[in-house]
Amino acid sequence: MSGELDGHVCLVTGGTGNLGRAVITELLSRGARVAAPYRSADRWREIERGFAAGDRLWSAPADVSHTDSAQEFVEKAVAALGRLDGLATVAGAYAGSHTLEKAPASEWPTMLGANLAPTYAVCRAALPALLKQGGSVVTVAARLALEGGAGSAAYAVSKAAVLALTRVLALENRERGVRFNCVAPGTIDTPDNRAAMPKADTSRWTPPAAIARVIAFLLGPASAPTTGAVVPVDLPA
């Protein structure tokens, strides 16, 4: 797949997380240039060294859950890299430990703010640049958005909202040259998840790199006929 995305510029949110790092790594391996926002400069500097991407990785501080910050970041990225061809909205978070009546009321705004808000804000900000030459957007929902999940109402609803937004944007942009697709992971095999669920059977979990390959495919030209899809990525690889 090396060189498949030569000349492409892709924006990836959530680059300091396990999945976001895997997506950036995969896109760079396929020849893309990547723009990545970050909130913690120290954390980003620690991670950035591992990419060894030189000038093919551009970054700047931004909180893309806010529309103004997302807009400023996208404008700076396009000015620095010249164009925008793809967007992967990986930024998100999980919370859930109780049934609806016992869960903290704060989980609802927290999950919507962590999962729906950055997806909305960065899609809104990126669309004008993507419309100039066409492009592809991949959002990240979750298997729980399709199935529901006991004890995870706020998370499941926030990810279902991401899925619904993706389908709306796919319809709105179907004839305008910008594709929108969504991946729906199950449990991702990360150190954080292993620490949180030490007794779980990890043999059915999906490695971040495997999900990243699907995201990169959906961002690339080989998936050109596809828009409005929800792709489960919940098997071991």
Concise synopsis of the structure shown:
This protein is 44% helix and 16% strand. The protein is α/β, with parallel strands linked by helices.
How would you sum up this structure, described in words?
The protein has 237 residues and is of the alpha/beta class. The chain has one domain (9-233): Rossmann fold (3-Layer(aba) Sandwich). The protein is built from 8 helices and 7 strands, in the order βαβαβαβαβααβααβ. Strands 3-2-1-4-5-6-7 form a 7-stranded parallel β-sheet, with helices on both faces. α4 links the parallel β4 and β5 (135-140). The chain is globular and about 50 Å long.
Radius of gyration, rounded? Answer: 17 Å
User: What class would the helix/strand composition place it in?
Assistant: alpha/beta
Integer count of domains: 1
Give the name of the CATH architecture: 3-Layer(aba) Sandwich
Main sheet summary:
7 strands, parallel
CATH topology annotation: Rossmann fold
Q: How far do the termini sit from each other?
A: 18 Å
Shape: globular
The topology string of helices and strands comes to EHEHEHEHEHHEHHE
CATH-wise, what's the superfamily? NAD(P)-binding Rossmann-like Domain
- Which regions contain 5 or more consecutive residues with pLDDT less than 50? none
Helical element count?
A: 8
Report the top-level CATH class: Alpha Beta
Task: Please list the strands of the largest sheet in the order they lie side by side.
Answer: 3-2-1-4-5-6-7
Mean pLDDT: 95
- Tell me the number of strands: 7
Strand content: 15-25%
